[in-house]
Specification:
The structure holds two protein chains of two kinds.
Chain A: H1 7-14, H2 29-51, E1 56-57, E2 100-107, E3 110-115, E4 120-124, E5 136-137, E6 143-149, E7 156-162, E8 169-174, E9 182-187, E10 193-198, E11 206-211, E12 216-221, E13 228-230, E14 248-249, E15 254-261, E16 265-267, E17 277-278, E18 292-293, E19 297-302, E20 307-312, H3 316-319, E21 335-338, E22 341-347, E23 351-357, E24 367-372, E25 380-383, E26 386-390, E27 396-399, E28 402-405, E29 408-410, E30 415-417, E31 424-426, H4 429-432, E32 443-449
Antiparallel strand pairs in A: 1-32, 2-3, 2-32, 3-4, 5-6, 6-7, 7-8, 9-10, 10-11, 11-12, 13-15, 14-15, 15-19, 16-17, 16-18, 19-20, 21-22, 22-23, 23-24, 25-28, 26-27, 27-30, 28-29, 30-31
Chain B: H1 3-28, H2 31-47, H3 49-52, H4 58-73, H5 97-110, H6 114-125, H7 130-137, H8 141-170
The chains are: A mainly beta, B mainly alpha.
Chain lengths: ~475, ~170
Amino acid sequence: MSNETDYESVRRLLGPLDTEPASPSIVDMRRAMADGRRRVRMRRMTGAAAAAVVTVLAVAGAPLAWQGIAGPVSPPPLAAPVTVTPGGPTTEAVESPGTVVVTSYRAGAYDYVLNPATGEYQRWDEPQPFPVQRGNLSPDLRWHASLSSAPDRDGRAVTIRSTVDLDDVRTVPIPVRTASMPVSMSWSADSRRIAVVSEGDPGLTSIDVVDVEDAAATEIELQFRDGQRGWDGYFPGDPHLHPTAAVQWLDDDRLLVPTITAASAVTGERGGRLPHRAATEASTDPNVTVDGFVIHAMAVFDLSGTLVAELPVSTHAIEDSPDPHAELIWTPTGLARGGDQLLLQEGGPGSVTLAVVDPWSDHGPYRSVTVTLPAPPGAEPMSPGGFHAWLPDGRVLIRSPLVLGEDGPWRPDPVVVDLDSGEARVVNLADVVTGDIVPAGATDITLADASPLPAASAHLAFDLPS
Amino acid sequence: MKAELEGEYVEYVTARMSALRRFAFLLCGDEHRADDLVQQTITRLYERWRRARTATSLDRYVRTMLVRAFVDERRRGWSTRVALTEQPPEPASLAAPDVEQRAVLRQALARVPRRQQAVLVLRFLCDLPVDEVARLLDCSAGNVKSQTHHGLAALRRHLGDRGLATLRHGE
């Protein structure tokens, strides 16, 4: 046979394979529907936990244009506070008109936060002086947690405030140990616990887990294998606005921790493309600067600190692949989770590359998508864009870079990416978040999965466009 | 999911089931794996039905999901794809040359990198144009052409002289 590649000859060559399946199908549509429902529920419960809730977005084209708006849009909150059991059964699921909800926004000099029990946006002021966007909302939208100085100004604390009763404020001191400082946190899927991550030197060896109901913290020693530690500086997005923790919850009682070793130290521009220059000599030579670590695995721990699983994250998995995206190499600049998928990203001023990982596979990233971010002409990028939320329908919301315009810093519209089709599109937030939900000119809008909404606030849900 | 949406899903999947299964069978050449691919695809489709139903071409959207499931399968642990049985497989019937041809071809094709397999099957068995294959695999038309070239070269290499002779004999 010659090297001919014309269509007909190849068609003839492969022709014997053009047959019908001989046996009857065993595909079960009912099972697919049942499994699909279960996965949707899982994603709503756990996918949102990592990403969900603090999604800081500026409304497009509305840079700092809210002077003069002083009051809340909705009536003031109910006089009688609503009692909520942390993490307990919240509400019966209701059919809502959409999949996402605005959880907070800024108008005038104030932040407003959603009371999910009433569907009202209430003004967020003392005794919680921190912007809503600096903290993390629980997956059930009923609690807001932020890191702050401890009441005695010696050390740090987690301040937890109920969004259905703003007077319910709980302060949990977090011990400051040698060479460590609490820096970030994440909520468990059931909204009962918060994992608090402290800086390590280098790397994590323990974390603190706060029980919301007890308002108490417990230190958990992470039983890494020899030579391994956790990575503490793992921020998907801007750590100044989006304090998502390095440690994430797989579900109600298992934690996912990015793992490093001394051998994975790198020097060079952090967040730049791999390969970084290895800095293994850093452990013995104080003159070698360690700028970061390449995470080589994701470790799963239970609440006793026992290592229960490990997912190797190997760049070789994509380097060796014939996939045309193979050159888009994962770097440890971000992590998020939706259902049974982990998302890694490589960020930059003009584009973001996302790679999806099956946490139970023995391989690394197996699919990647590169998204070009909106870049208004004449505007100077101030911070990179990147992952912002895993939407309930499985798509990923990408935040555009903050840019400096003539009127000050502002952020162009976000981009929604469909990882299945590779399709990416800019979302015009001004079109989808209407004046019925937030006042015109509102900014710093945060979005979350709408599935926990009770009937009283289900009408606030909307869809981001397909 | 609302009953109305669920009804649409059932109607669509019911109407497309046999076409999807044949598509999956052409891709992987194994009935059971084809069923797995279709099962996986329609499960995922259910999850995303609210949005998928608004796709410009729902058929293309679903085919894309199925092709990607097939391509991604390679990157999972190979052991999950190996079914061990106590009995050795039945030998191919000597009286059925077409069966033998298929076996030889399928065996050789299975050794071609998965993405190249997909390109060959989509182009030459499913008769899809280069642009459509590029859309399904989320790559450029040029990439499809180069994958075709490399895939055919690999296929011929794996067939070897003996395999090619078997195929010629059957013509």
